[in-house]
Design brief:
Layout lengths: L8 H19 L4 H18 L1 H11 L3 H20 L4 H15 L4 E10 L4 E3 L1 E6 L2 E7 L8 E14 L1 E6 L11 H7 L2 H17 L2 E6 L8 H10 L7 E4 L4 E2 L20 E2 L4 H11 L5 E4 L1 E3 L6 E3 L3 H13 L4 E5 L2 H10 L3 E4 L5 H10 L2 E3 L2 H10 L11 H16 L18 H9 L4 H15 L17 E5 L12 E6 L2 E3 L2
Parallel strand pairs: 1-5, 6-7, 7-8, 9-10, 11-14, 14-15, 15-16
Antiparallel strand pairs: 1-2, 1-3, 3-4, 5-17, 12-13, 17-18, 18-19
Helix pairs in contact: 1-2, 1-5, 2-3, 2-5, 3-4, 9-10, 10-11, 11-12, 13-14, 15-16
The structure holds zinc ion (ZN).
Zinc ion binds next to loops.
Length: about 500
């Protein structure tokens, strides 16, 4: 199994600590030359490689962009002084400055909630220590080493758990009852869609979703790749993203449809067929996708029913190329036939799968392929068409999704929690998790699914989805006990991503 680690943070932090320790020694009076050499390297490290760290510092301390600018200017003054006048005092002053600002900020934060859900189980009498972007300890108070604690956060009556992981989102879409999918794809420019997506990203993070697997830009090209970059650089708040770019569809199968035969319509995904799939897959990889999404079927049957789009050989080409690059493939598929073809071709997850039958779910279990039922999408679309949940009988589409989900659960297929959010409101991701609870899973199972379960399926399980030492500090705080009442997830009180609190 290939593992995608989260870019470079761990290494950055460890090196920073080394530098801080070095300054600590300097300040107690080692030889001047030694100080000079240390500070000289420190200057280079900060001026050239650690811009990101002091951006985070400023945010952590003051949360103000302006302050970042001031810090930036101060550093520039030192930089200038050092370049133009390499006297001993300048780097020494720099070391004091950095010592003052850095050492006092990079301390350990002790979190003391009533309960900790570690991604697998609920614990009482646990504390969690966070330093920089990492969890350094999680366990009983008695097992904690004596260390310097800069801040203690008591969270009475609360549960601390890993940041939730969304398995199926479209940050470049928004609810179809506001603007139809066709109109979003055809009438809205990419710049407009990106502007909206930045707000969607912020809402998602503040709802406690610290990571999302975004399943296609739906006509917005590689805008998701850029969005991910802006979030990673701290330019805008948002969840960590795994992105699919435009996704792959077989020619003529995907929307928008129904226009004059003389017009070439902008499509919601990239069309490619046959041997061209080698190039198309490689092209998407080269432009920054984290995985490949294919539409293994779509509503292109004589009566608009979902039927397979790519042939078996075509699906195999896509999987073969993606695997060579260390990436995996996920498939949109509703019909049992397309689900089976995609599974046999080697995809890792099946999205929607409302037509899944016993045979295909047993095959998925055998091959370790995960199932993302997207229950909330079907319900939302039915509601947009006038269905009143709880008062009227469930529409056929909703019933089918529930039946498939329950069958998959019974057979023991791995479930990936993902709602197809974008079809419904961003930040309302918990809607899917509540439906998973309503239709078959226990609250505890859902909690596992949306943390460690999703992380493992998405190849992130080495540093996300669990609260344990050396994992990234993506944490959320909720009132009460979500294992007893999952609805508490609707009101996430605090969100930490990468060791930084994000507050509305
Ligand atoms: Zn989707």
């Amino acid at each position: 199994m290939v593992t995608h680690s989260i870019p470079g943070l761990k290494a950055d932090r460890l090196e920073t600590r080394g530098i801080i320790n070095a300054i600590g020694i300097d300040l107690v009076g080692v030889a001047h030359l030694y100080v000079y050499i240390k500070c000289f390297f420190l200057y280079f490290a900060i001026a050239n490689s650690y811009v990101k760290i002091y951006i985070e510092l400023a945010e952590k301390l003051f949360g103000q962009k302006g302050l970042y600018c001031i810090l930036n200017k101060i550093f520039r003054v030192f930089q200038h002084a050092l370049i133009n006048n390499q006297s001993f005092m300048k780097p020494f002053a720099l070391s004091i400055f950095v010592h003052f600002f850095v050492c006092n900020l990079f301390g350990q934060v002790l979190l003391k909630p009533d309960r900790v859900f570690d991604g697998e189980k609920m614990h009482t009498d646990w504390v969690v220590l966070v330093e920089d972007s990492l969890i350094t300890y999680a366990g009983p108070t008695s097992g904690m080493k004596k260390i310097k604690i800069n801040e203690e956060v008591v969270l009475s009556g609360k549960t601390l758990m890993p940041g939730m992981i969304e398995g199926h989102s479209h940050l470049l879409l928004y609810p179809y009852n506001q603007t139809s999918w066709n109109d979003q794809v055809l009438k809205e420019s990419e710049s407009y869609r990106v502007a909206r997506a930045t707000i969607h990203a912020r809402k998602t993070l503040l709802a406690g979703i610290t990571t999302t697997r975004d399943l296609g830009s739906e006509g917005a090209g590689y805008a998701d790749v850029g969005l991910k970059r802006a979030i990673d650089q701290g330019l805008i708040p948002g969840p960590r993203m795994l992105v699919a770019g435009p996704a792959l569809v077989a020619t003529g199968t995907y929307g928008p449809k129904g226009f004059s035969t003389e017009i070439d319509i902008h499509k919601g995904a990239e069309e490619a067929d046959g041997n061209d799939l080698y190039e198309a897959t490689r092209n998407q990889i080269s432009r920054g996708v984290d995985f490949i999404k294919v539409y293994a079927d779509y509503r292109w049957g004589p009566n608009d029913e979902s039927l397979p789009t790519f042939t078996q050989e075509e699906l195999e080409i896509i999987v073969k190329v993606a695997r060579l690059s260390g990436r995996y493939v996920v498939a949109h598929a509703n019909s049992a036939e397309a689900m089976k073809m995609a599974v046999l071709a080697g995809v890792e997850t099946i999205e929607h799968g409302s037509g899944g039958n016993r045979e295909v779910f047993e095959l998925m279990k055998e091959k370790g392929v995960a199932y993302c039922p997207t229950l909330a999408a079907g319900e939302s679309i039915s509601e947009y068409k006038g269905w009143v949940k709880g008062k009227e009988e469930k529409p056929k589409r909703v019933k089918q999704s529930i039946t498939a989900y329950q069958l998959a659960l019974k057979i023991g297929v791995k479930i990936l929690a993902g709602g197809d959010v974008g079809v419904f409101e961003h930040g309302d991701n918990v809607k899917e998790f509540l439906l998973m609870d309503d239709y078959g899973m226990s609250a505890q199972q859902v909690l596992q699914c949306i943390t460690s379960g999703n992380a493992d399926i998405m190849h992130l399980g080495n540093n996300l989805g669990r609260i344990q030492a050396n994992f990234l500090a993506d944490l959320i705080v909720v009132e009460g006990n979500p294992a007893e009442d999952l609805k508490t997830l609707k009101k996430v009180e605090k969100v930490m991503k990468n060791g930084i609190w994000y507050i509305d």
